[in-house]
Amino acid sequence: AGSGYQAWLGYRQLLPGDRFDQYAVFNRIHVTETDSVIQTAVSELTHGLEGILGVKPEFAEQGKHAIAIGTFGNNPVVDRIVTAEKIALIGQEGYVIITDKKNACMAVGAATSNGVLYGTFHLLRLLSTGSDINELDIVDNPINRLRMINQWDNMDGSVERGYAGESIFFKDNLITEDHGRIRDYARMLASVGLNGIVINNVNVHKVESKLITEFLPDVAKLAAIFREYAIKLFLSVNYASPIEIGGLTTADPLDSDVRQWWKEKTADVYAAIPDFGGYLVKADSENRPGPFTYGRDHADGSNMLAEALEPFGGMVIWRCFVYNCKQDWRDRKTDRARAAYDHFKPLDGRFMDNVILQIKNGPLDFQVREPVSPLLGAMPSTNQVLEFQIAQEYTGQQRHLFYLIPQWKEILDFETYTKGKGSPIKRIASGSVHGNRLAGIAAVSNIGDEMNWTGHLLAQVNLYGYGRLVWNPDLTAENIAEEWIKLTFGDNENSINVIKNMLLSSPAIYECYTAPLGVGFMVTPHTHYGPDVDGYEYAKWGTYHYADWHGIGVDRTLATGTGYTSQYNSPNFERYESLADCPDELLLFFHHVPYTHVLHSGKTVIQHIYDTHFEGVEKAERLVTEWYSLAGTMNEVLHKQVAERMEEQVEHAKEWRDRINTYFYRKSGIADKAERLIYS
Ligand code: GCU
């Protein structure tokens, strides 16, 4: 109980009085089907009821005093309770949960076993959060078809940008034997409705290239575990595999031997894993190989793989994180933010139907604040999937508290105007704006082999919330937080309020003491943890802030800058282009301004920098006080774990504050109006 391992699936016992009496009516399970996903649902329901009610549920022949779970047409009790009208509303992965009060029974019904599993997890969520289940009448379908998680795990056991220990999948260049832990992870993912996993890092090196050859039998074992939880397994592949492991001399996508090689290897993969999801590819990106070497483009490269996968129903997920990572800082014309759009937009219409482009939420790299990628929605004839990062690479690395759901909500609600009003990112991601067959959301996982999965216990909420939000982007950050708190810490009103407040205020606090006004980076090179204002300023990575004695920011306007603003549709283009209309929080992303420039807030840029950095630390200190107010209300070990991280956050926020304030004081020579301590 003190480890955090159970995460949100602890199913703690309700006490008589809670809603115990009404729940006790439903202590039997009625099931008629035997396939493996239904069996997963049954064992989860058994386990859940046992925890919540404190008694082992029985299996019932009849529907009375029972929860009936099953697919339509295969379970008489489900069929009796669920009307044809309801059935018509349910898609491939949706479910209904309906209470039949008269007969004291309940049905969790769906068109597929996968839907039954999601419905079962939802029912358990309702029970664990103490909801009234007497009159349930729920019809629920996921909004996004692809609900993916990307592991950045390497076979040596390390996790790229991992902040919670080592890989749970790989160790010593082998696939781990600890299938129990992997099964528990599958369970967590399924409980929040995720349905696809890429088990290895997008940076695929020689050993990982062999996941589709030598290691295939072991990969198949993992696929079998995930299959029981309705999750499809995918692999990241190395674009240069034909050379590196195939003995060919080229990886040219138009070379017939290369095409044949991929076809054969792909057939082997499907022979071992008939429901294999497909390949994820990082090509021509950050020194990874790709079609550019052969004078080909990304459509040529991805279509070659798509052709190999197509006969089996597989897909290629091709990443758009393509930019010049060997830029010269002296060159003010090249703008990394432009790169994805410039590379991919002209290729619209050339991709096969089973290719999906995976696009990071912002044009740079998961910064605390950046605008939404203008490539999202800009290719009407191409499938796209939106990429988030649950791992907190630039948002405190799971040592600082950062609740990511509010940030993702803002992104999902962003209006692209790609087909006029009514084209927000959430409808691009779901495929509904352009009518895509394949669409959805993917995110980089934040788990590792640490006992509590995520290092910072409270970072579990980001994994939980990711699944919930991707299932339904209209859920609110408040509701998701509240659900998670109840499931994790129990139903105590004070704790719920305190923790909810902490979570909801956390992104703004972090933003306060890091790089100001959307300018981004200013982090220690390589680790990306902690402040280093000029760390990347003269580097090749294309992430500059251009601070001088006079001002700061990147001019990305069409009029006088890199022209990045013109990648946006009207009226976003005009809003970002105009210094007067550009939102404060993104000002330095789009404009270079003097420190004396007055923001909409009425403050000068320099005063804003000082104020937010002092406030950020004060607010981080308040978070600690709030957390200490909960001592004694929860498991002591868990409380202490979090307290330690929160204290580290404060110390580290001070480092950010002082480095940033001093840097800008030295550059500008302008004093703080409030005369606080800035080290000169
Ligand atoms: C970032 C991150 C890398 C990662 C890359 C990617 O640059 O720092 O570690 O490989 O994104 O998304 O491919």
From TrEMBL:
Give the E.C. number(s): 3.2.1.131
Q: Which InterPro entries has this protein been placed in? A: A-glucoronidase_C_sf, GH, Glyco_hydro_67_aGlcAse, Glyco_hydro_67_aGlcAse_N, Glyco_hydro_67_C, Glyco_hydro_67_cat, Hex-like_dom2
Q: Name one Pfam family in it.
A: Glyco_hydro_67M
On the tree of life, the source organism's domain of life is Bacteria
Tell me a Gene Ontology molecular-function term this record carries. xylan alpha-1,2-glucuronosidase activity
The record ties this protein, via Gene3D superfamilies, to: Alpha-glucuronidase, C-terminal domain (3.90.1330.10), Chitobiase/beta-hexosaminidase domain 2-like (3.30.379.10), Glycosidases (3.20.20.80)
Keywords of the record: Carbohydrate metabolism, Glycosidase, Hydrolase, Polysaccharide degradation, Xylan degradation
Q: Where is the Glycosyl hydrolase family 67 C-terminal domain?
A: 454-676
Q: Where is the Glycosyl hydrolase family 67 catalytic domain?
A: 127-453
Domain (Alpha glucuronidase N-terminal): residue spans on this chain: 7-123
Enzymatic reactions: Hydrolysis of (1->2)-alpha-D-(4-O-methyl)glucuronosyl links in the main chain of hardwood xylans
Assembly and interactions? Homodimer.
Q: Which family does it belong to?
A: Belongs to the glycosyl hydrolase 67 family.
Mind telling me what this protein is named?
Answer: Xylan alpha-1,2-glucuronidase
Which taxonomic lineage does the organism of this UniProt entry have? Bacteria, Bacillati, Bacillota, Bacilli, Bacillales
